[in-house]
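My main concern about presentation is that the manuscript never shows what a single data entry looks like. For the editor and my fellow referees, an illustration may be useful. For illustration, here is how one protein appears when written out as sequence plus C-alpha cells:

***
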Amino acid sequence: MNTAKHRRRPLQLLAGAIVSALIMAGCAPQNDAEPALEPPEAPQQLMPVSAEDIESTEGVPLAELADPDWVVDVATEHAIPHRAMAAYAGAALRMAETHPECKIGWNTLAGVGGVETAHASHGGSGLDAHGVAQPAIYGPVLDGTTEGTMAVEDTDEGDLDGDDEWERAVGPMQFLPETWERYAQDGNLDGENDPQQIDDAVLTAAEYLCHNTKDLTADEQWVAAITTYNQSMAYARNVAATATSFEPEEDASAAEPQAAIQ
C-alpha cells in the first residue's frame, strides 16, 4: 500500500474515490446553465456463476472465483476483455460474501470500468497476463487547466501517478492516489495493492461503492454511490446505461441478486 504522507483536504474535493479526469468521462460539476438531468434507475445487479468447489471466497484470488466458462461466454458476448471480466465477476462474488447487504453486481463494476477506461483499454493500453495495465493508465494532470477537471494538489509525492506537484487519476478504475491509499485492496493476493492491477482496482472500487451505500438495488442508493465516485449526474446516467446494456433480455433469475457462495 502507498505509504506517502497525507496532506488532508476535504473529501468532496477529491470527488470520492475517482475523478474521471479522462476526457472521455469528464468530471465537471454540473453547469447551472444546462438543464438538470434526471437521475437514472438502478440497473439490475447481476451475479456471476461461481467456480465449482469454492465454499468461501476467502484466500482465493479474485480471478479464480467465477466459473471460467461463464467468464468467457459473458465476456465474449459483451466484448469485455476476459481478464477484466474475471475481475468484475470475482469482485461481485467476494462482496456477496463480505458485504451481502450491498448487493453489488458485476455489471455495475463493469459499467464503471467501461466508462472510465473502456475496461483498461484506453489510450492503447491492455491487461497483461498478470492483469496489469500495460502501458500504465493515467488521467490528465489535475492542475485545473483542462476543461472539466479540478485542481488537486499532490498527496503521494508522485509515487503512484508520477507527478509530485498535482494529482492524476491512476489505473483501470481511475483512482486518486490519496483515496487509493485509504481503500486499496489486494484482489489477486500477491501481497501488493496496485491501482494498475485489475483485480486490486476492481475490488477497491467495489469496497468504495459499498462503503458509501446500503443497498445498490435501490435507485437512490445506487445513484448516491456512483455520484460519490464522480460528482456528475451525466456520469451516473452513462454508467447506468452501460451497466444496463449487460442485462440479459429475458432472464428472470437475474432480477434479484443472491450470494452465489454460501
Q: What stands out?
A: The chain has one domain: 19-29+39-52+60-247. The longest strand covers residues 126-127. Residues 1-34, 252-262 have pLDDT under 50 and may be disordered. The two ends are 30 Å apart (CA to CA).
